[in-house]
Structure formats: structure tokens, C-alpha cells
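User: Second chain of the day. Same drill as before.
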Amino acid sequence: MRLRVLGLAGLVVLLFFEQQLFSQNLEDAVRFSTPQTLGTARFVGMAGSFGALGGEASAVNSNPAGIGVFRSGQFTSSLTFGQSKNNSVHYGSEAEASMGFGRLSNFSVVLSEEADHPDWEFVNAFFSYNQQSMFTSKSKFEGVNNQSSLLDLYFLDVIEDPDVTVESIPDFFPFGAGLAWGAYLIDTANGEYIHANELHGQTQGREDQERRGIGHWSFGVGGNYRDKLYLGASVGVSALRYSSTSTYTEEMPENDPNTFMTSWKQTSELNISGNGFQLKMGAIYRINKYLRMGASFKSQEFFKLSESYTNTLEANWEDRAQTGAESPESLNEYKMRSPYTIGFSLGAAKKKLGAINFDVDLVDYRALQFSSMPAFPVDFTDLNNELSSTFKPRFNFRSGIEKPIGPYALRAGYAFNQGIQNTTLFDRHQFGFGFGYRKDLFAFDIGYGYAVSNVGVRYIHFAENINLAPSQYQTEQQQLVLSFAVYLK
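Assistant: Same format as last time:
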């Protein structure tokens, strides 16, 4: 059997480890840049389609020109309750996992003042908190794999690198093969490397839990020019908090004669936090008494992020006590710029008939970029070049309708977000329904949103040179939003 000797990793090795984590950063960057329809009940009930209508608290984040549409002050607060669910098929076995959530999704204040100017009708100020993204999610994959094991990947890492020795395995691969080595899942026999599941047949599984979200605070101003042109701009600051726990497992058949290992699991913990800064501006123009068109621009959001990452591995055996290993804590700090968004809208509104609106957004994911921080001087050039060359602009579409019936209002909407190829962001459809009641200076609204992605393909671990079949994967999310508004005269 082998001799276990620990050594010190050099600078080159440490930089190599950091490079290995960049693919995870890429997936997170897509996640952090993907728009979600969150906020007030009215906004969710119309699937976020308000670009040319304005005068709605959460819609201001899509087109700040909506600030200029308000003709009175307003206070709004919203609570969101819901559930996310993920369905998967892995080697023919179906699995389902769900997680509930509840949080404050919007808080906003509008101050409106008639302008002391012959051409400007109103000048308004706006302050809000809006939930920009929610990462509450749970997914599960499980099936019998007779073709491969994650240990195959770790085994190839060791034998294909000519610079690796038995003494340096933990230093070269502290988050993967080094843990398997430390837990005796990779070993030596008769002068050759072996691993504990070379003939496969195990029940293979992975469970992921994601938590937290992005909260966005914004301050904006807007104006109404002759009831013809509405202009607005805002400055926003975001707080990003993301935590994920991934547990990968392999469980051998009972009394398997090919191995003394009965099961093993690897648990990964990732935490990312930081703040972002963004500028937005927009305009709404009344073509005639009823018809309106809008345009908006959202700059890239400039994030500064801190990240920590750890792995632990445990193995169970027939002939020995449990073995295990822990990775060091990987720390990183970097900057990320999200894509910019250009939006166009067309809407119509008449007091007794109601309102209808259509939005189209262009999201340019080619603008997504990373850069290093002084304390962690890593070269992102290759990654950024790959992003620019492989990512393409994506289009998102929203439509919504509102019908007043006396003091009541009925709402419905549909939205489509285009996915990104070669990522876990699939095409997504969202349906909204809502009900509202307004009496004098008070309003109460209920909104319901249901979102479902297309069925896509996902690999439960990195699988280059490994015969691993892709898994099918689909996400669903439901949310119920309760909003209360007070109008200030």
C-alpha cells in the first residue's frame, strides 16, 4: 500500500487551483445576471410588463421613466410567498425536490410635486427596495450508473499529470482527487494507482440547495413634460448574498464483491457576497391620447464579490472505520460586470377600458466580464475572451393586460426569457394573474406568478473524457404576492 506524505504547494500550483474554480464563477455570473419577475402584486400579475405604462413601483426598475407618470405621492409594501421545484431524470430515474420561501419583495416611496413651470407638469422623486433575484432552490438527481464514477475523473487527474507524485496529490488536487486520496478512495497496489469503484454499478446522486438573493435599493427622479413626454433616471445599489450546498453521493449495491467500499459522499460549500452599482434611464412618449411607447437603458451592474469554497469527503467501508478528508478554504475576491439591457415598449391605456403593454428587452451577455482584485491577481483574459466570443445577445419578451371593473381590477400577463446555450439557464416561460381593489387613498392587490423552464440537459459533475450520460432537468416556481398601497395627496 502507499506511503502518505504531505508537501507544500508552490505558487504555480495555487494559481492552478484558482483556475479550476472559474467555471463555477461563470455559471454564477449567468445566474446573477438573469432577470426575474419579482416585486409588487400588480407587477407580478402582469408578468412584469409595464415599460410604456409607468406609474408602478416595481416597474420603475425596468423603465425609470415610469417615475414621471405618477401624479401623486405613494407608499407601497409587498410580501411574497412561494415555492421552487426542480424535476430531473438521471439514468432513467425521476426525482423531484422543492423549497419554500417568503420575504419582503418591495418597499417604495414616491414623492410627487406639481412643477412651477409652464411646460413641466410634475417632478417626482422615488426611493425603493426591490427583490431583484431569489436563489431559493433545491434539486436532486439519482440513478444507477453502470458506466462511470466521479472517481474515474479523480483517477485520471492523478495518472495523466506527469508532475504528480504520491507525495504531491493532496497539494495538486485539494478539492477533488486529493480528498479521494486522503479518504483511501484512490490508493496504490503493486506499484499502480487504483480506485475503489472501478467496475461501477453504484446508485449515483447529487443534491443541491441554493439560498439568499439580490436586493436592490434605488433612488430616482422623473418628470412629466406637457403630459406628452415622461423622463426618468435612477441610481441603484445591490446587495448580493448567495450560498449553496452540493452533496454528491455514490452507494454501492449490497454485498458488492468488487469493492470493500459501501458508499461515499462529497459535500461542497460555496458562499458569495458583495455589492453592485447600476445606472438606469428611460423615456415614455405619448403618441396620441391612448397609445404610448417607451425606451430604457440599464447599464452593466458593477459588482465587487468575495467568495469562499470548501469540500469535505467521507467514505464508508465493510472492512474498516469511516475515512474522510477536508479541503482547505479557498478564498477569492474579484469584480464582475453584468450584461447591459436595452428595452423597448408599446402600450395603450384608457381609464374605463383598461391597459395593455408589450416589452422587448435585449440583454447583451457578451458584455459580461471578470476582473481581478489586488489581493488576488488572477488573469481573466482567456475567460473574458471566451465569454465575448461564445455568448450572444438574448431577447426577453413580456406582455400584460389590466381590466378595471369599478373599484376592482383584473390582470394577466405572459413573459418569455431566452436561455443561454451551454449553461443551466434554459428558456423560461412565466404566467401572471392578479386582482386589485382600490378605495379612496388605499389599494390592496394580489398577484400570482407561475414560471416554468423548458426541459434542458445538465451534467451532475464535470465529465470530460468520462462516459457520463446527461440528465434532463426542469425548474418550476410559484409565487403569491400581497401588496398594500397608500396614496398621498
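The radius of gyration is 26 Å.

User: Great, on to the next one.
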